[in-house]
Fold each of these.
Amino acid sequence: MKKKIIAEISDITKTFGGLVALSNIDLNIKGGEIFGLIGPNGAGKTTLFNILTGMYRPTKGFFKLEDVELTRLPPHLIVKAGLARTFQNIRLFGTMTGLENVMVGCHVRTNIGVVGAILRHKGARQEEERIKDRARSLIDYVGLNASSAQAASTLSYGDQRRLEIARALATSPKVIALDEPAAGMNPTETSQLRELLVKIREDGITILLIEHDVKLVMGLCDTVAVLDYGIKIAEGTPSEIKSNPEVIRAYLGGDVP
Amino acid sequence: MSKLFLMFFGGRKNPVWVGYVFITVALIILPFLVEASMGRTWVRILDFALIYAMLALGLNIVVGFAGLLDLGYIAFYAVGAYTWALLASPQFGLHLPFWAIIPIGFVVAGIFGVLLGAPTLRLRGDYLAIVTLGFGEIVRIFLNNLDHPINITNGPVGINLIDPIQIAGVSLTKSHEILGLEFSGAHSYYYVLLFLLLATVFVCIRLENSRLGRAWVAIREDETAAQAMGINTRNVKLLAFAMGASFGGIAGGMFASFQGFVSPESFILLESIMVLCMVVLGGMGNIWGVILGTFLLAILPEVLRDVSGPIQENVLGRVWLDPESLRMVLFGLALILVMLLRPSGLWPKR
């Protein structure tokens, strides 16, 4: 079965003053796959994420999701178009409960305004119910039932990571971009995360994954791209990447050809 | 809250409404009890506490919910007060009825909220505080100087003879006798202000437990993450500024009509800080905490003024320190103690 390209990243370049953080990056992400993005520290992975999600503006290049160009749109419109993200250093809404965090994720797909909120008419009540139901089912989906009423900042590290994923899923994304979701997780939590990611893929959501845990990436991803010093040095299936001499050089060091 | 009432009234035996009836009756007879025990001045103090509570609840939307530190909030109070003063006084010879001025004040103050909000959208924390502080001063200085070239605000002299609220031709500042009870101006205003405060509380609770309230808190907790969750932070922040300012505007209008007089002096920086103290001391983000904080801070200085003189006479033989200045010292001390012992306010959110 040939999969359709859902996200097209073309010629993305980003410079900070004289520093070239990313140069001419092209990536094509197919619908329904897990696309891994790896590379040594400082390779530009998170910069690329920040460009895709509207936090940074690229110096050059464009990014399309389902043939709609999203480059240079503000973050909230990119989320609305169907790209949600998590953060490398977890950024939950600390004092809100787990459930409320996920409810915030529903914001972009709902639209009751001030008047509706104050009068709480039938439509507003129904929408609020829908938000709650959806948030509860997502909490259930990532397996956080037991702790959803706790303030997010009191959750364990692994739970916070999963809550961030649930919150991103609440925006009903087509593509979900995960920035090092396994960082700092113990082996049990990592294997739970792997199951969750497989489940998300089965539900038809494309995953763009930045990860340092090479074992996780190689076992899970359909396609892997490798960045080094802002340049894409390889792209292919995990087995192709494993035997790519450029990748081995970037990761293990070696003579510069 | 309803759980609290249930506990108080013996659980399942008494339904919740018994608690509400009790509270309602207490609020209705409160001014009479206060007047009987402490004199009419205290009914006025109570009225001012109600005005401040409205003001603090408005600021709580901006500072408590959305986390935008606003040090110039009193400007919106000033805008509301002057809107009322200009539309219902001999200044321009306009005498609009209260039901027309309240919505006008609400809208005008809201517009000023957006005017302040728009240029400060990219600022956070300290920087926002400095700009809002400047905004508050600009408004006050304008009011102080808009007596020339065309006289609008009457400058530092202020505007006098402002119309009180009139219902069916009956002025609320005059005393009336109904069913053998004497209703002074302070009494009548108490009920109007109480009604407006309850309406404010209602709106605040509804907003807090809505999609917008959650968006505000999300921005307070982490603005970048809020953006990444698809919240249009620009619009949602502007809305917080506008809503907060509007409540300040209504409170200002009430202040003008109750006092019958406004001048720029009432809207100095210290007032902004005072309202902020009410919010912070009570518990930022918690509506009931903010009301508690307001009542403490509005009433405590008056109690200290009444009490510190006689205590000195009894204990030390004569009055060593002027009660008027001593009360500010004690007031400051009380603030420091509260912040040391309960850093997140007397009645925090969680």
Amino acid sequence: MVEVSETKQKIKFYQTGTLTAGNRLLDEGHRSVQATIDRSNSLDSGHRACQGCGEALGARYAIDAAMRATNNQLIAANATGCLEVFTTPYPETAWSIPWIHSLFGNAAAVAGGIAAAMKAKGREDVRVIAQGGDGGTTDIGFGCMSGMFDRNDDVLYICYNNQAYMNTGVQRSSATPGAARTATTMPVGEEPGNEFGTGKNMPLIAMAHQIPYVATASVHDLHDLEHKVTKAMSFHGSRYIEIYVPCPLGWGSKPGQTITIARLAVETGMFPLFEAENGNLVGVTKIRHQQPVEEYLKLQRRFAHVFKKGNESQLEALQVIADNNIERFDLMSRGKR
Amino acid sequence: MLEQIEGSHAVAKAIALSRPEVISAYPITPQTHIVEDLGTMVKAGEIENCQFMLVESEFGALSACIGSSAAGARSYTATSSQGMLFMMEAVYNASGMGLPIVMTVGNRAIGAPINIWNDWSDSMSARDSGWLQLFAENNQESVDVHIQAFRLAEELSMPVMVCMDGFILTHAYAQVDIPDQAQVDEFLPPFQPRQVLDPAAPLSMGAMVGPEAFTEVRYLAHHKQVEALEIIPKQATEFEAIFGRDSGGLIKSFEADGAETVVVTMGSVIGTMKEVLAGMREDGISIGAVTIRSFRPFPREALREALKDAKRVIVFEKSVAVGMGGIVAMNLRTALQDFPILVHSVIGGLGGRPITRDNLRRMFEKGIRDQLDEPHFHDIHMDVVNREIEREKAECRSGAVAENILNDVGVVAAAKAI
């Protein structure tokens, strides 16, 4: 359930070209509202993110939701990466919360240390967030994050997944999907782009640690994202949220299509939205009409080669991944398939 | 209170008396009993308001301390050897951010070949990181220096490494005077952080800076070490006033005044040396010693003053800059460069090689005749080394060096026995 400020200003909001219910059809509590003047703005304007950056959008909504849920008693530890770089270089900072960047691979351990300090000082009202991109999470930060889950430190870890190392020039990470072009998986040779059959599924790995709460979210559905962050803050112990954040620079997509691509990732089945508690799946976001993966892929130059003659098998393989997700997470609304 | 106690157990008590708020530890790469004891004490509720974190690696251990220290908690961890290297990125990060973490290093060798015994390779690998490095001579000093380290770190807002010889001190039982809580509380005030993560006063820590500020930040790290050169002796004096012991400080002299030859070393080996040097003095040889208690900051002026009248200095150290020579010797030569003093560099005790009175006396006697090669590897089996060099010349696939050496040690020893 989404908490809406008392001073909300109703806006007329008619979505077109999508299958999402329009704002006017929702009940009051669920309607989109314009930000109020007392919005926390944890991540302030003036930062250096690219146009259409999914990560900036995701981080702003996630951290603000966490601020509301904790009565502004929040500290964040950030891994090295786009989010760290575009929000800070001294003497400027876009963060209006206490924020620390230490290293690329240790955000989870730093956050765990902050949580321990708060506990030692009897300030358990102060809550802690660790955040990083997919590289800082699934690759170099994997050990520290797994250790944090193991100890069940009172930390929410947020991974902004844009499926490659964008800050350093778009290299492959273990979250890069099959066929995707990156600087280290170029579309050349017999299997152009990233190899199929590689990579990690961090939300499932997080679930395997049996931590209190795991969820996936996407920047096309900010209400759902805020809801999941709010819910995560109602738990103590380790929590993990992975937010799907399109990257126009790395994906070769139009900045204006970030939301569309994020929505299509979900509606094709490429990025399932679900929630899990204590290692058990407790909810999924259903898809009413499954979109073919082509609709999602054609908006991104990183997949351009899959439409070339001779690469049909890659397109098929991506469709199989989407179909398998739908099957595995039971994503289809009843009778809609 | 006097106790017959293992070095690690004594240090654990010193840490507990220092009122830490967060302790993180990884069990073995390798570790000592220090953190085992502290874990028990925290679990038993014997340390008030303290959290003990069991982490997945040494990198995680120091990273957790970075977080807890930045959040204003007095933070402690311990490590040695491979673990120290595994956390190295965080070592530089902690000093770069000026976080006053205290870390024990139970000095041990670094592989390959894997070797768990004592030398100073681990601490030496971080000598330029910005951490202060204090070396303890014995277990009493290990206890005392840890208590001083927290105050020093917090006054400077810089991290401090307390280096104590692995096994020789960490695992040795000796009589130690464990201080009272009241004494420690009098010496060590509560932690007042210079910068802190606080929702009531948000700030951003650890952000990027470019070429326009980096030199100044680095200079200030150097400046803090220069400041420490004044603070360390002052704290040692205050410590002595409360605890009644001379512990810590920059250097310590052992009949070095007026000695023609002065041995310079660090850590526990001075214990054996003192006996050897006393014997040599009885035989009419003018020889004394100076130990460096603070390696970082390097006490340049104090050493110049202590060594200015010496004819020669023999630097004995358990560390080597491969391709160059002794690390302590290099530092000392720089400090004494305008003095007409011959500095011999001796490297010994690597990977736990025993340092005996006999082999020290033989080496010192060569030293006073200026017959030591540069650098001199103490107690090395050159016949074994030469066999391996010849083997590598003769065969392309000559095999694993460490295994060959060990085989040859047996062969050579057997040949000598005949």
Amino acid sequence: MNEMSARNVFYMNLLLAVLWAALHADLSVTTAIIGFVLGFLLLSVMHRGYGAAVLGAVGYIFFLGQAIILSSIQVARYVLSPKLRLDQGIVAIPLTARTDLEIAILASSITLTPGTISVDVGRDAAGQRVLYVHNLVMGDADDVRKTIKQDFERRILRVTRGGATA
Amino acid sequence: MTTIEWVITFFILAGALFMLIGAVGIVRFPDVFARMHAAGMATTVGISALLLGAGFFFSDEFLFYRMLVLILLIFATSPISTTALTRAVYHNEPRLRKQLRHDEMAVTIVEEPVKELAGSPPAHTPAAPAPHVAD
């Protein structure tokens, strides 16, 4: 079981959920979700790292929701403040994320969070892959880099790489 | 009012409020970049709060999950258009990108010759394709 990738185990989990729902007389989404949770409990015991990855993904969804709500309240405050004090700027964020999936999730999460928009992916002078992020109210560029790398990128990598890079 | 009615009221009012604030932001903010933030906030936060309110209102299991799927689809697609629009503005509006206080993306710009003013005879050489060094 451990030689299977976490992604294949996830497909097996979905299959178990469908099976569980199909065995019930009344077909409903809630039944499928219960089946998924039961399958998850079983598979997380059998496969090392799968449980942590799925819990990390669920935790990331909650983290993203919280970040979106908090920063949309912040942007609403900027919109409604009597005198606009915008401080726009584009920051280059060096990427630890490598694969297309990781970069796509990171860029989408940043754009979903009000106040930051990812504009482009490119390479800096040293050949390091960077993500260009536009900020509505920027403050210090290094603070922006640190926040995005620690809050968003670290959590995504924990899910996609199974905690290999902390 | 029952508890569920308070929940529905909260979500619908919050959604409408964020849509309104997004609209106010589009009017008040000075340039395209800032307006993109206001518009993006209205389409994600505003619409998902409205959809959640609708999902609770109809108290139907399948309808509620359908609302969750709709929110997921909006969250998957809306950032793509925001990013594409912002990048198009950045590459095609030198006046706007020079207003930014801090711009670490300027290294990707290949300087073009100054464009002709409107009304002047067409340029001798055709315009170079937009520089774009993303990999």
